């Protein structure tokens, strides 16, 4: 569903019963091409920001609260601005919004009473980061004309999720939503928080395929993986006191010492360290227009998530295994946190409709469920939406 400003403005005005002209902010979702679960281990990731975005319309109000309405959830939450500093998570969708307000307040940035109307094109819970799109667009909306360093914007949005919502995620999603750029993937160094843009070959299309399943295991398993990586770091520290995160461990050093790490954390570390290296290899292959190598790295990354990180599931493995046998497919892998959500596929543009037809029918036949397909074209990062004069109300 593509959203247009006129619909956002009329949705806002109808819901809040006002004729006030809201400002609108947009922040994109993202698809990660390679480097999964490497961000909280301070390694490399390689996402693109998507055209699909979350939109937040906001106008100041006199009622002393943040009234927050999600068009997608058809639900409203409200918090008096005086209570934002003491607010606690409730387990509801609105935590992502109130969490951002709370984190801004902690920085000494005043959050003013307002009506806030939210609608998103990013499918929720599918690994395309609807949560970061919501956090970043909310942060921009609450900031209004006040400016903040882009990297601080990403960090505030991340803290809303790690500190307030309570999900120990890395920085990739929020960073990508802020720094996205048209025609380019972003190679992010999650330790230095620096990035470089890498152009992708024109001769390949990127398509995300939504399995439309999300296994409940996801959140607890995510925490478990974070803890297992810390166990691996603790074991490696015994051999080299300088190691603070898996980022500090080279693949060759890991191969030398891996036997001294207990089996489960060893497998987790092997995934993280090898996938972070695959980011660098993928960027090099991309610069060299080497589609076969890009595809090979995709599949290697998937197998690493399947067997070492153990975060895939039957539906996702089926989508990958089926896709890579189709003509014109260079590679496929799961993207995002895991246990469902989306795969990402590198497909020759001329084979796209055949790819979709075949994968759609195979998946329906096997699971009785339709997958969804999203064309992934690298898009710009978050910002204010300039409204054409005709779309504002007098
Ligand atoms: P992902 O980020 O991969 O989409 P998450 O589980 O991290 O999945 O975030 C999804 C959650 O973010 C939703 O369950 C909901 O709480 C919140 N969310 C995302 N988009 C919206 C929206 N448009 N309205 C309300 N809540 C949303
Ligand atoms: Mg998320």
Q: What bound compounds does this protein have?
A: adenosine-5'-diphosphate, magnesium ion
CATH C-level name of the largest domain? Alpha Beta
CATH architecture of the largest domain: 2-Layer Sandwich
Tally of contiguous helical segments:
11
Please give a structural write-up.
- The protein is an alpha+beta fold.
- The protein folds into two domains: 5-199 and 383-391, Ribosomal Protein S5, domain 2, CATH 3.30.230.10; 205-375, Alpha-Beta Plaits.
- 40% of the residues lie in helices and 22% in strands.
- The strands form three sheets. It has a six-stranded mixed beta sheet, sandwiched between helices. Strands 10-11-9-12 form a four-stranded antiparallel beta sheet. Strands 2-7-8 form a three-stranded antiparallel beta sheet, with helices on both faces.
- Strand 10 and strand 11 form a beta hairpin.
- Helix 8 runs antiparallel to helix 9 (291-309).
- The longest helix has 25 residues, at 263-287.
- 48% of the residues are buried.
- The chain binds adenosine-5'-diphosphate and magnesium ion.
- Adenosine-5'-diphosphate binds next to strand 6 and helix 3.
- Magnesium ion is lined by residues 129, 131-132, 173.
Topology:
Blueprint: H1 5-16, E1 23-32, E2 44-45, E3 47-60, E4 65-70, E5 75-80, H2 95-106, E6 114-120, H3 130-143, H4 150-165, H5 172-179, E7 184-189, E8 194-199, E9 205-214, H6 218-237, H7 251-257, H8 263-287, H9 291-309, H10 314-323, E10 329-335, E11 340-347, H11 352-367, E12 372-375, E13 383-384
Parallel strand pairs: 4-6
Antiparallel strand pairs: 1-3, 1-13, 2-7, 3-6, 4-5, 7-8, 9-11, 9-12, 10-11
The structure holds adenosine-5'-diphosphate and magnesium ion.
């Amino acid at each position: 569903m593509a959203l247009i400003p006129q619909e956002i403005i009329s949705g806002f005005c109808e819901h809040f019963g006002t004729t006030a002209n809201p400002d609108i902010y947009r922040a994109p979702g993202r698809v990660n091409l390679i480097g999964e679960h490497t961000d909280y281990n301070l390694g490399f990731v390689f996402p693109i920001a998507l055209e699909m975005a979350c939109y937040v319309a906001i106008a100041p109000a006199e009622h002393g609260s943040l009234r927050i309405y999600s068009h997608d959830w058809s639900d409203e939450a409200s918090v008096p601005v005086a209570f934002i500093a003491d607010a606690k998570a409730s387990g509801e969708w609105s935590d992502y919004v109130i969490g951002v307000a709370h984190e801004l307040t902690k920085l000494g940035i005043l959050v003013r009473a307002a009506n806030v109307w939210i609608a998103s094109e990013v499918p929720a819970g599918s690994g395309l980061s609807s949560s970061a799109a919501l956090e970043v667009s909310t942060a921009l909306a609450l900031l209004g004309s006040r400016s903040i360093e882009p990297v601080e914007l990403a960090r505030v949005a991340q803290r809303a999720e790690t500190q307030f919502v309570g999900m120990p995620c890395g920085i990739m999603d929020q960073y990508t939503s802020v720094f996205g750029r048209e025609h380019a993937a972003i190679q992010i160094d999650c330790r230095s928080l620096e990035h470089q843009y890498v152009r992708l070959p024109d001769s390949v299309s990127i398509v995300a395929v939504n399995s439309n399943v999300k296994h409940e295991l996801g959140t607890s398993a995510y925490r478990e993986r974070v803890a297992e990586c810390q166990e691996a770091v603790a074991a490696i520290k015994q051999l080299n006191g300088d190691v603070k995160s898996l980022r500090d461990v080279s693949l060759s050093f890991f191969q030398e010492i891996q036997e001294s790490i207990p089996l489960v954390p060893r497998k987790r570390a092997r995934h993280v360290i090898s996938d972070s290296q695959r980011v660098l290899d993928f960027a090099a292959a991309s610069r060299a227009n080497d589609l076969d190598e890009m595809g090979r790295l995709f599949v290697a990354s998937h197998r690493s998530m399947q067997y070492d990180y153990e975060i895939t599931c039957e539906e996702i493995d089926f989508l990958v295994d089926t896709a890579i046998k189709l003509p014109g497919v260079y590679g496929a892998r799961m993207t995002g946190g895991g246990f469902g959500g989306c795969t990402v596929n590198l497909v020759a543009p001329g084979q796209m409709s055949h790819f979709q037809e075949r994968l759609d029918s195979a998946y329906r036949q096997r699971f009785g469920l339709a997958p969804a397909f999203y064309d992934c074209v690298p898009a710009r990062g978050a910002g204010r939406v300039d409204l054409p004069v005709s779309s504002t109300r007098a």
